[in-house]
Amino acid sequence: MGDFQVDYGQTLFMCILYLSIGSVSIFCSLTTITLYLTNRDLRRKYILYLVLDCCELLDAISYVLLGTGRGHELLTGVMAVPITVRACFFTKYWPQSLILGTQLPSICTLFLSFERILAVVRPAVYKRMCTQNFKYCFVAMVPVWAVLTLVAAGVSVIGEDGDRVVGTRHCAIITSTSRWYATFHFIFIVLTYVIAFFSTLVVWATRRTLTKSKYGSQDDKLGMILAMSGTSIILLASPAVVMLTIRWDITGWGDIEVAITYAMPGFLSVVNTIISFRFRKELRSQFYNLIGKQVKSHKPEQSMFTRTTMTTRRTTMIHHLS
């Protein structure tokens, strides 16, 4: 127990699925990154979202590395050859990308949740504190976290946990790091999206309290984001449940179940790209500009995170998402 099972057909399906979802996610991430980088205003306004897309690009690349690496092990007939946890982490090229590809987007999501809730609950503090330089500090913390978490993962396999022999060469996070680190990894990821959901819920509740209309387009958009945040928790909790139940010897899963659940973050990345195009007019305009298509100018869309008082009907722009 505490390991994967090897079935040629199921494992081959896993590799093909990871290569497919990784390729689609790479295309989506590169598209949004290109749009941000080719427009100075978008780069400044959505700097944290740009970093988030870069982290999701790393996640997409990790799927390709994972599918390629496991596919090579399978086709060369060594997938079922035992290996130590330490050897998995230090000799295979995909465990590190798996860690960073899921943790770094979670860190960015945590930063965005903090910014979002501060913008609505304490707009004056947000305006004073969340300057462009402050956002750059957030950006700088992402690579710092990457180094720290990889060091922690490496340290976790130095002792007895690293000597544990696993029966397959899947070399997933749960079989290439210690039990405590793998548990922290998956709980941390789910927890960040739970925080993101509640931050959006606070924004939604605040807007409903401070606005007269319940049917405005901004509330509709925010409701959609709220629903997607809740869905994200379910999608990201499923691989956590599967992986941790394997690692803690609770139950076993086949490669098909593992593949489908672990592909959820990649699927979520694709969905987030679609949502970005749907709710951010500036992103759509930049896309049309790059392909040379003329679009009619419209009145600028109001931010979803906009606080409007009931008495004066004055609008204070405090955070931009659309």
From TrEMBL:
Any single Pfam family the record assigns to this protein: Srg
Keywords annotated in UniProt: Membrane, Receptor, Transmembrane, Transmembrane helix
Bilayer topology term: Multi-pass membrane protein
Keyword Transmembrane helix recorded: yes
Annotated compartments: Membrane
GO CC aspect terms: membrane
UniProt GO BP: sensory perception of chemical stimulus
Gene Ontology molecular function, alphabetical: transmembrane signaling receptor activity
InterPro entries for the chain: 7TM_GPCR_serpentine_rcpt_Srg (IPR000609), 7TM_GPCR_Srsx_nematod (IPR047130)
Record field: transmembrane: 16-37, 137-159, 179-204, 225-246, 258-277
Signal sequence segment: none
PANTHER family listed in its UniProt record: G-PROTEIN COUPLED RECEPTORS FAMILY 1 PROFILE DOMAIN-CONTAINING PROTEIN-RELATED
Similarity section: Belongs to the nematode receptor-like protein srg family.
The protein's name in its UniProt record: Serpentine receptor class gamma
Native source species: Caenorhabditis elegans
Highest classification ranks of the organism: Eukaryota, Metazoa, Ecdysozoa, Nematoda, Chromadorea
